[in-house]
Amino acid sequence: MTDLIFNVQTYGAVGDGITDDKTAIDSTITAANVSGGVVFFPPGIYKITDIINLNNIHNVVVTGSLATINQVTATKHALRIYNGSADVTISGLRVTGPHTSQAAVGDGSGIIVGNYSSGDSGTTKQNILIEKCYVQGFKHAGIMIYGAQSGANNPTNKNIIIRNNSIKDCQNGVFVYKNGTNIIIDGNTIEDAWYDGIIIDAKSVSDGEVAKPNQNINITNNTVRGTGTYGQAVGILAKGENKSVAITGNTILDTGLVQTEASVNSYGINIQQEASANPGLDYTVTGNTITNMEANSIAFGIYIAECYNITVTGNSISNIQHYGIYTYKIKNATLAGNTILRCGSVSIVAQGISGTPSLNLTIIANTCMKDTGAGITGISTDWASGVAVTGNACTDMSTKVSIGANTVNYSSTANV
Q1: What is the C-alpha to C-alpha distance for residues 84 and 123, in angstroms, rounded to an integer?
Q2: Structure pTM?
Q3: Res. 15 pLDDT band, cuts 50 70 90
Q4: Residue 30: what are its φ and ψ, rounded to 5°?
């Protein structure tokens, strides 16, 4: 990349919060794309009424100093990177939208990689960095990585880093939808998302297209606070045929405390197959802190369903209205060294159903503690096979370990 700097005000942007600066910003990006360079926003509020498109852009940095890009049109994204763009950085910008609640009219994301329509034509967007931005007020997502196919097209997104951003008052914080490879989501702060903090989605229930796995995903060191004002509340959600996902060192707190809808659940971390034909594979959930969760229905610290090859270790889970760790119809899993305090029902559940039991589970060296209350169970398993429950400490529990009548090929030793 060259050291050329392209100042948006040189190309006609005003930054007074009143003038529509979209055309001037587009002209600046076009000029920078000729040989690469830095698109620079001086201090100001840059009002836009349509999307700023980075269409087939290469070797460009978009950055600013005390600069806000303010999208005022409810149906539009603010910044869109698509159509084969590569080696693009968005850094240090404030990006604001017009939405203040889920009830608002319209849709859009603050920064999106990909294109909802067929404009991507099966292209790959790669080597994208989005860092140190503040994003607020978008009804779809603060930052969206979009790889769903349109007809025969099959766009992909790879080598993308989303780090050290602050996202507030959006429907979802960071949303990776299909065909993502080598994605890092690190060090972001997400507050007051109306639905979910971070989503990795390979196939939605409402999506008529086939599943497209996301793979090699690292979700690390993020803070997610206060999700779920509307609908189901989730700190981190991974659903569908995702592969090789690491969820490590995140802090998730105050989930579901302000839910306004009845009969919806809350989850700190939710990993599930959902509508996909194949299970999610190779998840590690390690060293996360999950605390203060409520729900109008059921609250789960960590919930994992119909996925294989799971490691859940060293997590700290506390003050959960119902379940600490709840697993359902999973295979080849280790739950080890987790600390679960003050859950209202069962600290750890390993559950299957008739015909689809949970298989090959190791539950070892976990600490489960309930300060007050009766009828609380430390570890419970039923409809499972090949279960080893070993060396767990269950304190102040009415029942330390409950092995259901439909669990076979199990051992329960040295639990106190």
Answers
A1: 5
A2: 0.95
A3: very high
A4: -60, -45
The token duo for 403 is 């092995």
Task: List the one residue out of 230, 223, 152, 136 whose CA is nearest residue 185.
Answer: 223
Query: Encoding tokens for residue 97?
Result: 């939208």
Instruction: Report the half-sphere exposure of 242 (CA within 13 A, side-chain side).
Output: 34
What are 357-394's pLDDT values in tens digits? 899 999 999 999 886 555 589 999 999 999 999 999 99
Largest CA distance in the chain: 75
The torsion angles phi and psi of 17, rounded to 5 degrees, stand at 80, 0
Torsion of CA 362, 364, 369, 374, to 10 degrees: 50
Q: Are 365 and 338 in contact (CB under 8 A)?
A: no
pLDDT tens-place string over residues 281-292: 899 999 999 999
Q: Note whether 373 and 345 are within 8 A (CB).
A: no
- DSSP assigned state of 30: H
Report the candidate in 311, 348, 307 with the shortest Cα–Cα distance to residue 333: 311
Measured distance CA(336)–CA(91) in Å, rounded: 39
Q: Is the pLDDT of residue 174 over 60?
A: yes
Q: What is the DSSP string of 313-381?
A: ES-EEEEESSEEEEEES-EEEEEES-EEEEESSEEEEEE-BTTB-EEEEEEES-EEE-SS-SS-EEEEE
Pairing of strands 156-163, 124-131: parallel
CB within 8 Å of 196: residues ≥ 6 apart: 172, 173, 175, 227, 228, 232, 233, 234, 235, 236, 237
| Residue percentage of the chain with pLDDT more than 70 | 91
- Name, in order, each residue with C-beta under 8 angstroms of 355's C-beta and a sequence gap of 6 or more: none
